[in-house]
Fold these 3 entries.
Entry 1:
Amino acid sequence: MFVPLLIAAFVGYLLGSLPFGYLVARAKGVNIFEVGSKSPGATNVRRVLGHGPGNLVLVLDALKGALASAWALLARVAAVAESDEGPAWLHFHVVGADWLAIGVGGLLGALLGHGFSCFTRFRGGKSVATAAGGFLVLFPLGSLIATAVWGLTLWLTRYVSLASMLAGVALTVAAWLLHTPPIILGASAAAMIFVIIRHRANISRLIAGTESKVGSNKGQPDAP
């Protein structure tokens, strides 16, 4: 179990490290680390380059988390279909809670990769979209609840940072109230804590009343 879990975390980290925000902005002739909030997250890309590039980064970042979480399920299907004479790497015996644990390991690796990408000198975003994509695979109902809280908070306050943090809280509360497996509850709590820590500068600006809102001028600090 340890070996496939380690592989999942490593693969997840590499997937999460793919700097889509940087690459999309670079294709437009912009170094995203030098403009706006200097974050490669979808919010900063959208503010600097517009909705098209920003939404593209949002989808790609979410896809990273989904793939990092889903590959274990695919490995399970392959292992079941493969005969005993098949490649040894398929014989992970990934069944039941085991594949779920490996999926969580992949997602947590992706969150770290997005926040500290090895391709951009360990700089990165807040990992909110990546977490959303991963939990859409591992905990679909919780992901939908968190998305609803995110959307409602954004509509009421226009603060992306506040919406992202409350979505993390909602995900964890949903995992607890719905009696999900302990590993899902633990992963939800870990993702919530990680997202909140990554938003610590935004928390200071929220308290000071200087945090930018959706629709504010480009170049101002935001909550990527």
Note: Residues 88-92, 218-224 have pLDDT under 50 and may be disordered.
Entry 2:
Amino acid sequence: MKKLITKIFERHDPVMKRALTPASGRAWTRPIVGDDSIYRPVENMDIMNDLPLKPSAVLIPIVERNNKYSIMLTKRSSQLKSHGGQVSFPGGRCDAGDAHAMATALREAREEINLPEGNAQIIGAMEDYETVTGYSVTPVVGFIDPDFEIIPEQREVADVFEVSLDYILDGKNHTIEKMMWKGENRHYYVFPHADHKIWGATAAMLVCFANLVNDNAN
């Protein structure tokens, strides 16, 4: 599985061009996929965010243990004003000192869960994802050596957990729900989970990842 996913990203993100794109190169570029476009075509341009977008990056950490794989996720602290209590990847908004998306993802993972950079083997990034809140998120993908002490940043992270990669790749688990938001129905992906609700942009990026792997597995 590791060799397969690595080869897929060698083709999808040659020389890690997406992972190494600086924030200035992403703020003014409209992502192909996002909260408004992944479920249906955008017909009303007024609902799209104005440029520039707020560049950010997340790490999709594939944990490797004895040829078994899972994806590490975090649950945000309920005390946070933005998306409190929601499931997310380690990540956040790009800082001025971040050279590129990969630097942001690794810095945030170090700050949020104490992941040493030496424990992450980055293999590339997927297409940027535009959130309804105006962020352009670069999902950086890497294999993680779990031999480190997870220390959640208490002000931001309430929990750290893992979900089987096989579960993520199974299209039967890519469910869609809807709710009323600002006067209209909003659709969003959900991964059914016994203990955590994995939904919204995090679930959508997991679906994009699963589709990329599944579509190129043969």
Note: The chain has a mean pLDDT of 90.
Entry 3:
Amino acid sequence: MERGSTPFEEQLREIAESLLRMGGLVEETIGKSVRALVDRDSELAREVVAGDEEIDRLELLIDNLCIETLARNQPMAGDLRFVTTAMKIAPDLERIADHAVNISERALELNEEPPLRALVDMPLMAMRAQQMVRGAMDAFVRRDADAAWSVIKMDDDLDHRMEQVFRVLLSHMIEDPRTISRALRMTFVAKYFERIGDQATNICEQVVFMTSARVIKHTMVRDPAGGA
């Protein structure tokens, strides 16, 4: 006869499921924001802005669930790390959603002006940012520190792409001063994608802590072997 779940186990499951739902919505929001930008779809951009309220609601729900779980059960060791990690991941996901909202707001502004000749590496930055968020949440679900490290290493590529975008947009502004307003907005968008990568990295740092009790935040450590 199979043993039923305890109330504590049910609480842990509810936290995990709520966090996964939030992560799924956030990843979807990133995709919508870049489509609104690339396709000049103002309606989709407004949908992203309006949908941010549900993500904010989930953050508050997860926070309350975690506080209640800590107060009622006083978990230890791995369970304690899981709950505290969930409390830290939810705000990172909420900030990622805020960046997607910012991208959509810039898209609304850009849609009022003629398009730039090209969006340079912006779609590639968006794809990499989505990959990092998806990979971070997969690492959390599987409690896989190696997968988390793989995502952390992807952040350098996103930073490099942002620098390339800045150089190309600067060239646009120098060649044609009429593009300055639009190019500046695009630099903001590139920075938002770079920040999404940073938040995904934060999530992975928390996953490493959750799985191994090893703190890598604010250190020079960037690989499991301990190298810089």
Note: The CA atoms of residues 69 and 211 lie 19 Å apart.
